[in-house]
């Protein structure tokens, strides 16, 4: 490899390392995927929110039936 090719390659690599274009969009995409995964876990049919709501409705229903 000639010296000029080596220098051009080194300059290109340095430029590539300093290039920050698109980094923010990638970070937002990662955050979006994480939020979507958390929402799926929380709001799924077997998630903690659905379980808590079902338990609460069952408790209320049982108390109403026993009061009659």
Could you give a short description of this structure?
The protein contains three helices and no strands. With 68 residues, the protein is mainly α.
Radius of gyration: 28 Å
Number of domains: 1
Residue share in β-strands: under 5%
Uncertain regions: pLDDT < 50 for 5+ in a row?
A: none
- Helix segment count? 3
Main sheet, how many strands, which sense, barrel?
A: none
User: How would you spell out the order of helices and strands?
Assistant: HHH
Which bin fits the share of residues in helices?
over 70%
Count of individual beta strands: 0
> Any idea what the shape is?
rod-shaped
Mean pLDDT figure: 88
Structural class: mainly alpha
Spatial separation of the terminal alpha carbons: 92 Å
Describe the fold and architecture.
With 68 residues, this protein is mostly helical. It has one domain (1-67). It has three helices and no strands. The chain has helices at residues 3-18, 23-43, 48-67. The termini are far apart. InterPro entries: Flp_Fap.
């Amino acid at each position: 490899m000639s010296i000029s090719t080596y220098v051009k390659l080194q300059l290109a690599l340095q430029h590539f390392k300093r290039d920050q274009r698109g980094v923010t969009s990638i970070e937002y995409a990662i955050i979006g995927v994480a939020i979507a995964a958390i929402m799926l876990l929380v709001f799924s049919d077997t998630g903690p929110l659905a379980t808590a709501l079902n338990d609460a409705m069952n408790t209320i229903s049982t108390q109403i039936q026993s009061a009659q």
